[in-house]
Design brief:
It contains four helices and seven strands, in the order E-H-E-E-E-H-E-H-E-H-E. By secondary structure, it is an alpha/beta fold. The protein has one domain: 3-Layer(aba) Sandwich (Rossmann fold).
Amino acid sequence: MNAYKQILIAVDLSDDSQKVCQKALEVTQGENIHIFLLHVVEFIYQMGTSYDPMFYPSLDDLSENEEQLIKLSKEKMAQLINEMNIPTSITLESSVLSGIPKTEILNLAEEKKVDLIVCGSHGRSGFELLLGSTANAILHHAPCDVLAVRTKKSKE
């Protein structure tokens, strides 16, 4: 197996994000490793007159509440990065985007030509919730390997 050199870590900025990042760092080997750390703030839907969801097309069109959410997410991302203890052999690039998480994650993975996507998995019961809808979509549509890190212990 070749070592992963381009890794995308998708985090939800919950308390489990540190665990997901740590697992990603554990699979890195060698020099010239580039990590893309990503959090996606989900669009808030607004219903139009035809009951079709209308998306805000850019960050310029966001409401004050959404702007606050993005600002808070960027602060939490900075705190997460400080807690990661990243070795000097790793280059880190972080982003907070607004959109649909699975779409933004997959788009960035293709754009950056990543070797591995690392994301959290809640391990809930039921077929659809096996990985969670975002992790499930990533697993089935990713252009590369996917590491789903269990973030919650299942009940025994």
